[in-house]
Fold this sequence. Notes:
This protein is α+β, with helices and mostly antiparallel strands. It is 50% helix and 15% strand. It folds into 2 domains: 34-282, 2-Layer Sandwich (Beta Polymerase, domain 2), CATH 3.30.460.20; 288-354, Up-down Bundle (Methane Monooxygenase Hydroxylase, Chain G, domain 1), CATH 1.20.58. The chain is built from 9 helices and 7 strands. Mean pLDDT is 84; it is low at 1-10.
Amino acid sequence: MTQKRRPSSVRRRRSPPGTAPGTLSVDPRALTARLHAMHFNADGLVEIEHPEIAPPEPGKVLWLNIDGLGDAALLAQIGAAFGLHPLVLEDIVNVHQRPKTEEYQGQTFVVLRMPSPHPDGFDTEQVSLVLGETFVLTFQEKPGDVFEPVRNRLRAPHRPIRARSADYLCYALIDAVIDSFFPVVETMTEQLEAVEERVLLGQAEVGMAEIHAHKREIMAMRGAVWPLRDVVTALMREDHGQISAATRLYLRDCQDHVVQLTEMLQSSRDVTGGLVDLVLSSQSHRTNEVMRVLTLISTIFIPLTFVVGVYGMNFDHMPELHWRWGYPVALGLMAALAVGLLAWFRAIGWLGRNRR
């Protein structure tokens, strides 16, 4: 049976080696950008598709979401309107980044990896966030994300999130990404448990390729989750100029979720290692069973072969050769030897229910 090749978890760099820092090198296969804006404060919300690129009005918070990174001119226009550093724009379009957080000229740049299902399992895509004093920008590789619950909270009237500042919105988006890993990791854990049950019960053959495919997915998820500890820890620093003390309290919950995910993935990785040993042990056990049966058969036939060999010699003075009952006696002797050996093997536990 031919297995499908899973998408590689390795992200290739878009900029050739030696390119000047801050070069905006867009992947020609990237999707055309689509913009969506939400302007809000405690008094109301304005939601706009394809908005003008401009900072928020005074007294409001802006969340500008960009789906697709294929328009270099548009990205440069966004960078100029919001004062983004060239290195930030470079990291946004180069989607090989690991989760991290950096500070640039009064802005906080955060890179996350968001789980993205595909027909053969799970993968991750890069999500970049830029936190300013009154705005949050989110850049995604393609449409479809885990931010809809946050949008619904903003759309509902009289929700506390509307009265919060931009740093709380940034926390809510990071929390949504982190929480989106739980269903994925739980599904992977259930799949591993099903494989482990099949191995233990011997219901179906489990190949090493199947186990390594699960291990590869776990390692990809671990690579996306493990650096989140450093991201959340950096945002929780007391000297962080853009994160308020009230928001840092909520970030503690994010940190706890990251620890839970890390422990779940570590446990799943240990299970895959145990499954490899279990499959190899099962294969070795089956080989030993075959060798045991063959050894018992050989041991039974060794004395029978000896008897046949003795009476197969061409000597004249062998009384049994001319005896009328010689042939049935020889057959009876061989049958008695075979039955006696089987009884002995059963008595010492090498055969039947008494075997240990």
